Amino acid sequence: MSSPPKLAFIGLGVMGFPMAGHLQRAGYDVTVYNRTLSRAQHWLECYGGSVATTPAHAAEGAELVFCCVGNDDDVRSVVLGDQGILSGMAPGSILIDHTTASAELARELELIAGKINIGFIDAPVSGGQVGAENGSLTVMAGGAEEIFTRALGAIECYAQCVKLLGPVGSGQLAKMVNQICIAGVVQGLAEGLYFAEQVGLPAAEVVEVISKGAAQSWQMENRYSSMLAKQYEHGFAVNWMRKDLAIVLAEAKNNNCRLELTELVDKFYAEVQGMGGGRWDTSSLLLRLQKQDN
């Protein structure tokens, strides 16, 4: 019997940890790297596989290398340089970046990787920590179809929907669309719940009714109860949302796009940060409105 394909996964945060785990449990031979070694060792205890002490060592011999870190600078720090991912990858292998980063960075990395015959896909995800743990993420990808097809089977280990949307950079641009839509929906939900409370309606019962109609959304189904309970120590942090919206607004400026609502909601999130809520879930926009009454 042939040995299972060797993969590498760089970055074991709340998303990468379970994503890499799904790959190992699917029968792949996964080597992981994380900046904090204890986190990688904990992954090893949970799933097996192997741990490397540098991104380059993790990538050695891997057919596919996955990366899921924080931002553009974090991606560059683990991909480039003598100990970076690309220095360990073999010609013909593929790098898949799941980080939510800029489309400009994706295009930059494609050029660098292409010079040494390494394929590249930008593939940011949506679905949060729960989606990663349940293997039900949505993946928005950009890249060449032949390269995407080779990576698809592995990506499907932790995704319920994977879509190639165009050349490299398209995945990041699609993730920007996703964040634009979420920003508006969460602000609308926060204002709706706030209004219901202010006029004396039973907010939870109102949601029970309107969620069966045109107002329904993922945010409404999954966040309204924790919002009403003022529970925000979970989910996608405001700090990360502001990072994403900064990428969105920079791209919009480069393309002469007016994103008035997105700019406004970004300012609201800045106010939440000022309240000490940088690590609160993005649904904490409701608390911002409630605090104004005190």
What does this entry look like structurally?
The protein is α/β, with parallel strands linked by helices and 294 residues long. The chain folds into two domains: 6-166, 3-Layer(aba) Sandwich (Rossmann fold), CATH 3.40.50; 173-291, Orthogonal Bundle (N-(1-d-carboxylethyl)-l-norvaline Dehydrogenase, domain 2). It is 53% helix and 13% strand. The protein has helices at 16-25, 37-47, 55-59, 72-79, 85-88, 103-114, 128-134, 145-155, 170-198, 203-210, 218-228, 238-254, 260-274, 285-291, and strands at 6-10, 29-33, 50-51, 64-67, 94-97, 119-122, 125-126, 137-141, 159-164. The strands form two sheets. It has a six-stranded parallel β-sheet with strand order 3-2-1-4-5-6, sandwiched between helices. Strand 2 (29-33), helix 2 and strand 3 form a beta-alpha-beta unit. It is elongated, with a radius of gyration of 20 Å. The model has no long low-confidence stretch (mean pLDDT 97).
Question: Secondary-structure map with pairings?
Answer:
Blueprint: E1 6-10, H1 16-25, E2 29-33, H2 37-47, E3 50-51, H3 55-59, E4 64-67, H4 72-79, H5 85-88, E5 94-97, H6 103-114, E6 119-122, E7 125-126, H7 128-134, E8 137-141, H8 145-155, E9 159-164, H9 170-198, H10 203-210, H11 218-228, H12 238-254, H13 260-274, H14 285-291
Parallel strand pairs: 1-2, 1-4, 2-3, 4-5, 5-6, 8-9
Antiparallel strand pairs: 7-8
Helix pairs in contact: 1-7, 9-11, 9-12, 9-13, 9-14, 12-13
